[in-house]
User: What shape does this take?
Amino acid sequence: MEISCRIISRGRGKGPVIISDKPLSFLGGVDPGTGTVIDPRHPLHGRSMSGKVLVIPGGKGSTVGSYVIFQMSKNGTAPAAIICSNAEPIIATGAIMAGIPMVDRPEADLFQILEDSLEVEVDAVEGKIRV
Assistant: This one.
């Protein structure tokens, strides 16, 4: 299956999906040293996004979250790619700075199609998600 989407940060990435229908704050919500969600109120609490395709509706919180994403890239703990329903500036800026492929506005409801651990390719050059 191939799903069209909007390109935010160019590149290609693939891996197992880690998905949540709740927005995520990277500042205080994610440990940049491990890539693990540390916000105890978030459904992904205790799970690592390192090397995975992160699927979320969008981000929330402080603009410093962009730098957390950048630090994750430097630490080798960043997601392989990010898919958002609607990207907002915090995650978009972080993905661009970190060189993480990112897309948004998929033409299908990914929360109805994707599930944890499903292998997905994000082609943020052609604007496609391949399941």
Remarks:
- Residues 2-130 form a domain with the Glucose Oxidase; domain 1 fold (CATH 3.50.30.10).
- Residues 65-75 form the longest helix (11 residues).
